[in-house]
Amino acid sequence: MRIGRKIACAACVATLYMAVLPVVGQTERGTAEMNVSGGKITVAYGRPQLKGRDPLTWQQDGAYWRMGSNTTTTLTTPVDLTFGSTKVPKGTYGLWLLKHSADKYELVLNSATSGMGMSHDKSKDVATVPLKKETLASPVESFMIELTPGAGGGTFSMTWGTAKLSAPFKTR
């Protein structure tokens, strides 16, 4: 009878372990959404925490960051978008941040939309969009992406630490 209880207890512990295992080491997921004529633009991303660090100083000039944590950050749009003169056809894209210097960044839309790798494949880039950098008065602890509606389109923005990077877009 004691062996039966031990087996039942071990099975219970194993079940709990298997239920918790997928979330260990995972960060919170975030979603930014914006309704447009023709559907909804969506960005799905991981939300890493600052924990007293300055994330944009980690990135060297000329380096890519896959914007978020864990799985690839994706933008899905049911309509074509235009960022300045850059046209982005409707579809799903992996998002990367390219740092040129401390004040010059670009949003990179890439055709690779899955995985957890840190390696950027430039041959799959679809579009690059210059981002405007602003310095915030107080730091934002959790990485955040927002889609804010505006006249004829909206604004894509990401904030983390004391940096806000953004780009307006039009829908067509």
How much helicity do the residues have?
Answer: 10-25%
Order of helices and strands: HEEHEEEEEEEE
How many discrete structural domains? 1
Shape: globular
Strand content: over 45%
Structural class: mainly beta
Profile the largest sheet: 10 strands, antiparallel
How large, in whole angstroms, is the Cα Rg? 20 Å
Can you characterise this structure?
The protein has 172 residues and is mainly beta. It has one domain. The protein is 13% helix and 53% strand. Strands 1, 2, 3, 4, 5, 6, 7, 8, 9 and 10 form a 10-stranded antiparallel β-sheet that branches. A hairpin with a 2-residue loop joins strand 5 and strand 6. The N and C termini lie far apart (71 Å). Residues 8-24 have low confidence and may be disordered.
